[in-house]
Model the fold of this input.
Amino acid sequence: MSMEQWWPKLNPSTREWLIDNNGDAVPAETLVEIADAGGSVASGDWWVGENGPSGFHFSDEAVDWIEAVGNGETPRSR
Done:
């Protein structure tokens, strides 16, 4: 599922944390919430970045998307 589809289903506090900590490793509980909203980090979708020893990170394109949302802009649809 695309980020545009699951993002609105996240709790507002989760969206705020993702905006405020954009580019940081995503906490495990947030990944669970993303999965519950329909996003899968195993999907290979455009927003999936690296998942390694330091945790899950969004792709560079997803970081840009979140930054646009945080700036009150309408991000480019994918």
Summary: The two ends are 11 Å apart (CA to CA).
